[in-house]
Amino acid sequence: MDIKLAKFNMVEQQIRPWNVFDENVLSTLAAIPRDKFVQEQYQSIAFSDVEIPLPNSQKMLFPRIEARLMQALDLQATDKVLEIGTGSGYVTAVLAKLTDFVYSVEIDDINRQFAVQNLTKAGIKNVSVVSGDGQAGLSSKEPFNKILVGCGLSEVSHELKSQLTIGGKLVAIVGNDYIMEAILITRDSQDSFSQTKLFETQLDKIVQPHSFTL
């Protein structure tokens, strides 16, 4: 596989045509070696427009969806970020390169270990990956400037969005199994939140706590 060409095609043929124009996001997506964040048998399709399986259930997001969600957050170098659903650690790595620090919550311990190994090999140090139920957020480390939910939710709980700073932003994909949409939630004041629809899609629902023994 021609890695350089595969990265170029991912950015220019998949992501940019999907209305992603943030050059910081685009360049960082290309700079992080996505093929090093997938299982060996999937490395040849690491940059393709597919959902790549993770070691123990669930799948990585399409690259174009990863990019749209990150662009919507308007990531800043000083941001403290919460990620729900570490997955392979690829999005975690991109977030870490674009911001100050990332806390990532993963309920599946096999996937969490896979992500930690990938992040360590990539030399990403400004992250903390913890086991837990992401639907509850990470109240011990709040508030967060940005929150990215990398798995489908029926709805965003007040508990989760209340962990945003004033002016903070949260992106998530919400809905049922057949009708889902990506949304951007902004905390306008202590008690006020606004919501914007970004795009329609489908995504695996978040794994429930009782599904695994941690």
Show the helix and strand layout.
Blueprint: H1 3-15, H2 23-31, H3 63-73, E1 80-84, H4 90-98, E2 101-106, H5 109-121, E3 127-131, E4 144-153, H6 158-161, E5 164-175, E6 180-187, E7 193-201
Parallel strand pairs: 1-2, 1-4, 2-3, 4-5
Antiparallel strand pairs: 5-6, 6-7
Helix pairs in contact: 1-3, 2-4
Primary descriptors:
214 residues, Rossmann fold, 6 helices, alpha/beta
Account of the protein in words:
The protein has 214 residues and is an alpha/beta fold. It has a single domain (3-208), classed as Vaccinia Virus protein VP39 (Rossmann fold, 3-Layer(aba) Sandwich), CATH 3.40.50. The chain is 28% helix and 26% strand. It is built from six helices and seven strands, in the order H-H-H-E-H-E-H-E-E-H-E-E-E. It has a seven-stranded mixed β-sheet. Helix 1 (3-15) crosses helix 3 and helix 2 crosses helix 4. The chain is globular and about 50 Å long.
Distance between the termini: 37 Å
Number of domains: 1
- The oligomeric state of the chains shown is single chain
CATH topology descriptor: Rossmann fold
Structural class of the secondary elements?
alpha/beta
State the share of residues found in helices, binned by percent: 25-40%
Query: Which CATH class applies here?
Result: Alpha Beta
**Strand tally, please?**
7
What sequence of helices (H) and strands (E) makes up the elements? HHHEHEHEEHEEE
**CATH-defined superfamily:** Vaccinia Virus protein VP39
* Mean pLDDT across residues: 92
Name the CATH architecture.
3-Layer(aba) Sandwich
Spatial order of the strands in the main sheet? Answer: 3-2-1-4-5-6-7
